Amino acid sequence: MTASPDSNQPSPGELLTLKEVAAYLKLAERTVYLYAQNGRLPGIKIGSAWRFRRSELDQWLDEQRRIAESSTKAPRQSGPKTREEEEDS
User: pTM of the entire structure?
Assistant: First the structure.
């Protein structure tokens, strides 16, 4: 039996360690720990160890992208007009 090229990649339901999540998200381990501890990152604590499902992390990333995109598309609330806004007036 031969291993598939992606055999080292976690499956969507596979549990990842804090260290693996930090590498996956390219964040410091401490940041991942604090996000999980504060409920900002989906994870489960088993004893003293945090574990994370890859599929839930991917969903979380999609949500973060949607939030970022919607906040950049929101109308400006205050401040001086840009040159383009002045030209359109």
Answer: 0.67
